[in-house]
Amino acid sequence: MKLFIVTCIKEYRDDVCKLFKQAEIRVFSATDVVGFKDSDAKNSLLDWFAVGEEKFDSLMLFSFTKDEIAMKGMELIEEYNKDTGTSFPIRAFIVPVDAASS
Questions:
Q1: What pLDDT, on the 0 to 100 scale, is given for residue 47?
Q2: Domain of 56: which CATH number?
């Protein structure tokens, strides 16, 4: 089992939901996130955490899913980013789940 995590700006919510459907991710959760970016950051850790003046209304969507479905989702998101060439790419992460309660 994998934890498939996606972050995007709110304007891409419908696109991400379509990508989830194409990947056969039928059950997922979403939460609002406020992202911050300081383009002058020298430390890569600072790019991840809330620093700087620039704010973006974002979403984090996630699903616990099978390995092959998570990989399909990742492939679709990589294609989307390549095809759109946006300056706000959709970010995706696949995290292994070592144990889960039933």
A1: 53
A2: 3.30.70.120
